[in-house]
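Hello, quick one for you while I still have it in my head. A protein chain has come my way and I'm curious about its shape. I'm sending you its amino acid sequence along with the backbone structure tokens. I'd be grateful if you could look everything over and explain what you see. Here's the protein in full, and shout if anything looks odd to you:
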Amino acid sequence: MLDHDGDTHLYLQVTEILRRRIEDLPPGSPVPSEAAIQREFGVARTTARRALRVLRNDGLVYTVPGQGTFAGASNARAAAPRSNPAYRQIVQEIVERIRQGSLAPRRSVPSETSLVHRYGVARETVRRAIAVLREEGWVYTVPQRGSYVSPPENWPIED
């Protein structure tokens, strides 16, 4: 599919493939993430990022922080789905697991790597979710060891 030995940069080749796909999408449709592009084309993260940047600069896609990249010009944002950002969804699911007892106090929460694979998101998205959980009192982090479920007395008081 990609010509690794040709005279055209890989990111431009990926851009053209994505451009053809995006032309068939209605405005507001999700576009593959950098991680998904990496997996599909076997390219580096910077190659995927550069391809999306070209498409964004050409007005074919727009990005909503925490939600993803979507087909269409930036004025099509109203057509984008209005769901929780990915990090918020991770927070909600981990809080639910803590409440149900499947994640016990003073025991580790899943690692960044396992959460990245489970949710199909970037590492920064997982880090943001863990930071929110820490700020709210659901988890605490031990340097060089990981994050652990806080004791129940540290959990936020529910209204």
Observations:
- Residues 86-100 form the longest helix (15 residues).
- The first strand starts at residue 30 and ends at 31.
- Residues 76-82 have pLDDT under 50 and may be disordered.
- The chain has six helices and five strands.
